[in-house]
Amino acid sequence: MAIDVSGTIAAIPAMSEASRKRLRQNIAAWVKSGEPEKMTAAQLVESALEADDLPAGEGAYDAIDQTTREERLRKAFLRRPASSTETAVIGLLLRHPNETSHQLSRRLGWEGQTWHAHFGKACHAREDLLWRAPPSERRDERFFSAILADYNDASGTWRIKPDLATTLADVLDIKLIDGGGEA
Predict the structure, then answer these.
(1) What domain range is 125 assigned to?
(2) What is the distance between the alpha carbons of residues 166 and 170, in angstroms, rounded to a whole number?
(3) Model confidence over 121-165: pLDDT tens digits?
(4) Are residues 41 and 130 in the same domain?
């Protein structure tokens, strides 16, 4: 009887590096077992893992989607329209670049880094339609907010990636003046 690895394969894009390491150990054990079902499952999972292990950033999706980043951005928000909260957190960063998570949260009447949590969720929700998030330098996971924004570690501030700002403002119908800020 074949082993169903569809759930494992579907989970690969969201796996941390530690989880990927454990999965590779499992693959090796399945192959070592010599059991045909396990060897077939190992081959399927290993192929999916290798396909997902392309470099982080847009390069990982270039093999699949030859459209520009701006076109991908438009398609992603057309396919998964922004909720009112997502529009608020993304629009806020478009209008107030170079502010900290705390400053952005306060502008929405929130505390702490609530803005960052919502922004990261909005990015993560569209990662499969855009490009792979880079790995986090602080945690064993990917840095989802970095899909759409740049973070300045020295100042603790954020800004929408410059090549995406105009398209994102257009997609979300946010009026900007040159250099960010509201019109």
Answers:
(1) 60-171
(2) 6
(3) 999 999 888 888 888 777 777 888 989 999 999 999 999 999 999
(4) no
